[in-house]
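Record type: monomer structure entry
Structure origin: computed from sequence
Chain ID: A
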Amino acid sequence: MSKVPAQWNHVRKRMTNADLQKARSLLTGLETILSKSHGGWADDDSLLEFRRACWSAILLLDDADCQSQIDLLVQYAKDLYSDRGHHRWNLGPVFGVDILRRKIRMTLVTLGARLNGVEHGYGKRWRDLRAA
C-alpha cells in the first residue's frame, strides 16, 4: 500500500480571477445584509444568510489571511444578531451594535484590500515568469 505524499493531503485549486470576483460579490452581499437587518436581537435568518455567504467565500479563497478575516466577520455577526452578545461590545455611550457594524465594515474593507493584493500579486508573478 503506497503512502500519499504529505503535500497532497490538502490539495486545493489555485484561485482564479473568477473566484476573486465571486468572493467580492459575496462580500458585497454581506453589506446588503447589514443594510436590511440592523442587529441587536436574535435574528437567525440574517445570521444564517451572513454565515452562508462567508462559508461560500471561504471555499473560494485559498488564502489564510482572507480566511482569518472571514472568521472574524462570522464572530462579529454572531454577536450582532443575538439577544445578548452585542452587549459585551458596549463602550460607554456607544452601543455594541454600532461597534460591531463598524467592525464588520472595517473588516470588509480590509478583506477587499487583501483580495486586490492577491489579484495583483498573481499578475506580477505571471509577468515575472514570462520575462524570464
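Annotation 1: Residues 15-131 form one domain.
Annotation 2: Helices lie at 17-36, 44-60, 64-80, 96-131.
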